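job 3f2a | input accepted
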Amino acid sequence: MESIKLGLLGLGVVGGGTWNVLQRNAEEISRRAGRQLEVVQIAVRDLAKARARVGHDVVITDDAFAVVNNPEIDIVVELIGGVTLARQLVLQAIDQGKHVVTANKALLAQHGTEIFEAASAKGVMVAFEAAVGGGIPIIKAIREGLTANRIEWLAGIINGTTNYILSEMRSRGLTFDQALAQAQQLGYAEADPAADVLGHDAAQKLTLLASMAFGIPVQYSRAYIEGITDVQDQDIQIAERLGFRLKLLGITRRRADGIELRVHPTLIPSQSLLANVEDAMNAVLVNGDAVGQTLYYGKGAGEEPTASAVVADLVDVTRLHTADPGHRVPHLAFQPHSMADIPVLAIEQVRCGYYLRMTVSDQSGVLAQIAGELAKFDISIGSMIQEPADQGTATLIFLTHVAMERDINEAIGAIETMAIMRSKVTRLRVETF
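job 3f2a | predicted structure (433 res):
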């Protein structure tokens, strides 16, 4: 049977890993796919460097559109990253009737609706397993493995850089800046780590997971995003003593009034599965009504772990290359005409527990005043500890029962105006799943 012809856009970390895996495991891959997968053209910036790597049997160009428009190519593999040029290339490939495999979560989070609609109209596939969780097959699990379930919620550590930083702050007592510098030295963090530490990378991935879990359009702009740059090492250590660990989680939950879609630092019980995911590893916990909780764990980045997901998509697309488009697995798990217009809730509508830390005057009646203020907003205290601070002050830490974010915001605003306060209130969200 004739081979499937591939065009690679990019031969960087993931592109290079994809090339390596395709060459090293060619026989195994063709046995699984039923046809040989053959890279026939690669677009790169540095032609000489690429030629030294792949030899002379593949056409190499610095014109990415030459690959997209090549009539010989069946599948375009977009691994250049970014949004603007990648969007143009992917849409052009779709218009040319080519399938697309991509690892570009930023592209799909921002333009996924447009891209998936264009692909459906042309009867081609857009596969993106590598866009979320690196080598973890979380996309396939949600899109295919859990189709019998009504998914209630999912929560994930889906950014390895921030998980490494928080793990080092907890285990070694490092500050955020110290842990970040170490992550950069080890290659876990970029020179400009903003997308990771500000939570945007995790939010892009969460947006795609939420779309497949609940059958809603891709709505990255509606996600609440809070990173870890303001996390204090003292809160990590206090949380540990209280039986919690701090993780940057992406959380999406189905509620009667809408969908929660949020990324933020979260305290979770230290004995829970997610709490014990350390270093740069990723994990996603999915709760379905039939199966209960399932956990997907592994390397969320890296050359060959991500390439593993890219090649898995290539095998899937190859298997279904000649299938009737109406009988393929939908891009976002649900049939396109069945996508639901369920609202994404604002963060003020979220309900969870809260950790509140504040410094107050060390005098009688302080605890009663703060408890009374919380009670005004129907916020119940689960537990409280007091620790000495500087002379004449004390540090109070409250763990609340589940409350509405809007009420917590109003309570914090009222508390911070009280004469007894000697600091702003530090607030972290708490989830027990």
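job 3f2a | Residues 84 and 107 are 8 Å apart (CA to CA).
job 3f2a | closed
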